[in-house]
């Protein structure tokens, strides 16, 4: 009996070694990143960037051979940093499109979020979009999705931003929110979690863009074309880690909320749950870019060159499609084909 138990133990041990060895070989099938350290800029901490932060806190970037530094930077400063090379990747919105229209060579290679979570609020008593005629709306940076959404909606109502509605630009969501809360603007268009502050104080929702099904790329993964060409393996490793972050965030709500609490300095459990729910509904499991979302930005851009621009010059899905075939299909077999 001792011999048989010992033999069984050896068989089990050998099986564990085989599994471990197979896992190690699987990891080695991915080519080594050309660049081991990456500077990442994001426009704001929040639900849409939570999988990225989860990937950092869970060690997924390190697992894929990368050391990553994540910094909150305004949209305009971030794209300037990408162009200069001080920032490797910008996880943000339409500012990358504006920069390319202005002559830069920045492309999206993935879309971590492809549905808008923007909400347009009015001051108390202002409940319909038409009531904003002749009034001012607080938003974030010029060219960001707040401006794009406002231009699109104004057009639907026969109005025009700049003529019928004035936009007040701010460096951050919090600054825009502050302007609205002290009644220095008549409207406010922002993303979670700041939306919950306005909701709780009873400000009326004019437009919920998530319910309206607005397609966007934000935060998208933006790099220069030159960086993408020189660092293909680095970007694949980065996107694999990001997908690991999406998977962990969806599977482990409590861990994701702890990460959110750390970065956003939030201690209220209800707010953390609301943030998580806002994020989970828009995280993109295959991270491919929908050209229709780029077309939307071009159609409602203030740049005169936008409407005639070809959406294809602003994105390249080839990298994320390769990562999906090699990796995402294993993480999300029902969502990624």
Report on this model:
- This protein has two domains: 33-114 and 216-331, 3-Layer(aba) Sandwich (D-Maltodextrin-Binding Protein, domain 2), CATH 3.40.190.10; 119-208, 3-Layer(aba) Sandwich (D-Maltodextrin-Binding Protein, domain 2).
- It has helices spanning 2-28, 50-57, 60-63, 75-84, 95-101, 145-156, 173-181, 194-200, 225-230, 232-251, 253-264, 269-280, 291-299, 318-331; strands at 37-42, 67-72, 89-92, 106-111, 119-122, 135-138, 165-168, 187-190, 205-208, 220-224.
- α6 (145-156) links the parallel β6 and β7 (165-168).
- The chain is 47% helix and 14% strand.
In short:
This protein is α/β, with parallel strands linked by helices. It has helices spanning 2-28, 50-57, 60-63, 75-84, 95-101, 145-156, 173-181, 194-200, 225-230, 232-251, 253-264, 269-280, 291-299, 318-331, and strands at 37-42, 67-72, 89-92, 106-111, 119-122, 135-138, 165-168, 187-190, 205-208, 220-224. The chain has a five-stranded mixed β-sheet with strand order 2-1-3-10-4, with helices on both faces. Strands 7-6-8-5-9 form a five-stranded mixed β-sheet, with helices on both faces.
């Amino acid at each position: 009996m001792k011999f048989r138990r010992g033999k069984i133990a050896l068989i089990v041990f050998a099986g564990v070694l085989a599994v471990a060895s197979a896992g190690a070989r699987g990891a080695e099938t991915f080519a080594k990143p050309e660049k081991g350290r990456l500077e990442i800029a994001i426009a704001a901490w929040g639900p849409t960037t939570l999988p990225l932060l989860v990937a950092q806190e869970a060690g997924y970037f390190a697992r894929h051979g990368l050391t990553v530094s994540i910094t909150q930077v305004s949209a305009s400063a971030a794209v300037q940093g990408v162009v200069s090379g001080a920032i490797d990747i910008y996880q943000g919105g339409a500012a990358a499109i504006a920069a390319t229209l202005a002559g830069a060579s920045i492309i999206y290679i993935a879309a971590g979020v492809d549905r808008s979570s923007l909400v347009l609020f009015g001051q108390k008593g202002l409940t319909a979009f038409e009531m904003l005629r002749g009034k001012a709306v607080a938003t974030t940076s010029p060219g960001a999705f707040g401006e794009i959404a406002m231009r699109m909606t104004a057009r639907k109502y026969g109005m025009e931003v700049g003529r019928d509605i004035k936009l007040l630009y701010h460096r951050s969501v919090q600054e825009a929110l502050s302007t609205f809360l002290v009644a220095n603007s008549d409207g406010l268009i922002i993303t979670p979690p700041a939306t919950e502050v306005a909701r709780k104080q009873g400000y009326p929702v004019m437009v919920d863009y998530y319910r309206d099904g607005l397609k966007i790329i934000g935060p998208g993964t933006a790099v220069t074309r030159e960086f993408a060409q020189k660092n293909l393996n680095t970007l694949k490793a980065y996107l694999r880690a990001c997908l690991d972050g999406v998977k962990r965030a969806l599977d482990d709500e409590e861990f994701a909320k702890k990460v959110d609490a750390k970065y956003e300095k939030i201690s209220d459990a209800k707010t953390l749950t609301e943030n998580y729910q806002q994020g989970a509904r828009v995280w993109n499991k295959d991270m491919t870019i929908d050209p229709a979302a780029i077309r939307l930005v071009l159609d409602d851009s203030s740049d005169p060159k936008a409407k005639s621009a070809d959406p294809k010059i602003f994105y390249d899905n080839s990298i994320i499609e390769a990562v999906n075939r090699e990796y995402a299909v294993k993480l999300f077999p029902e969502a990624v084909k």
